[in-house]
Amino acid sequence: MAKNMSASLDNILSKLNEKQKEIIVNRYGLDLREPKTLAALGERFQITRERVRQIEGSALKIIAENIKTNSELLDILSQSQELLRKFGGVAHEEDFLREHKSSISNLDKSQINLLIEALPYFYFHESDDEFHNFYYLTAEHLKSALDLVKKAENYLSKNKGKILMTKEAFKELSANLKSEEKVIKNYIKISKKFHSSPFGDFGLKIWPEIKPATIRDKAYLILKKKGEPLHFKAITDAINEMGFDNRKALSPTVHNELIKDKRFVLVGRGIYALREQGYEEGTAREVIESILKEKGPMKSKDVIAAVQKKRFFKPNTILINLQNKKYFKRLEDGKYALKKN
Fold it and tell me: How many angstroms separate the most distant Cα atoms in the chain?
């Protein structure tokens, strides 16, 4: 039978006087509103912040004493400790509360946070620049988690070129950091430095391949994953479909950004490809020249195939250029070669 947190907590709060109860309810957001600051409550009651702190402190002492005699709340706190042990001693707020809600009715994080402020069976770390909200069992568990997160960050930094699918990444980190995969996953989840891309790749959030911030980086990632040239309008649609963020990409903006970035090559009318995938700038004649210079005489069908790996020309356009006797000649075996000047 599910435990009822609200009923047990209401019984505890009934032991407080009206001012103590109102301050506790507002300080911890037990009314499901945003928690109030000491200053806001001081202004409301026309007292100093220090006086609000004193009233809160005296109320927490009463709450702590009453928790000790409330078997249901003690069971909840013990259950919380056991749950944190399963997470490796540290758990992201969402994971922790989701697991708890399966056995405790009417559960809210404000209630849990009040209980552990009064009687610290475990602890809460509020979101900051580096971490999300999370709960931890002891200072030792916290240190272990922070150490492992740092090691994971350093490992990924040294292996930036080796971006992995999320599932495989945790296996590799587990092997290299000599820790359980599920523990690494829980620890890493509390950090804001890691991220999984919409393509399922895992890495550091600052990497443009993982969380691209600019139009150029988003377009680059789309073309790299697609592996073939795309019209700038198709690139725009793909960026918006992937949902990298809430900013909508516009076709004219995408086109302008692609033109200015040397990573991209215009291989046809409005069609772009990545230079790193072998595509080149230049006219059909110039591309044919570079291919024949590198590979020597080739059959026309092989020239077409080779050119289309570098530029997005139609076969007829390539064949017409091959007929230009000023630059190319047809050999007796039917192959084409560069004409020597």
Answer: 105
| Identity at 302, one-letter amino acid code | D
Beta strand spans in 46-174 (E):
90-92, 104-105, 123-125, 134-136, 164-165
Q: b/e per residue, 306-337, with b = 16+ CB within 10 A?
A: bbbebbbbeeebbbebbeeeebbeeeeeebbe
DSSP H or E run through 145: helix 139-158
Q: Is 175 exposed, middle or buried (0-12, 13-18, 19+ CB in 10 A)?
A: exposed
How big is the chain, counted in residues?
341
74 CB-side CA count, 13 A:
8
Instruction: Kindly report, residue by residue over 258-283, the tens digit of the pLDDT.
Output: 999 999 998 888 999 998 888 877 78
* Distance, CA of 87 to CA of 110 (rounded, Å): 21
298, β-bridge pairs: 336
pTM above 0.70, yes or no: yes
Return the closest-CA partner of residue 132 out of 168, 163, 93: 93
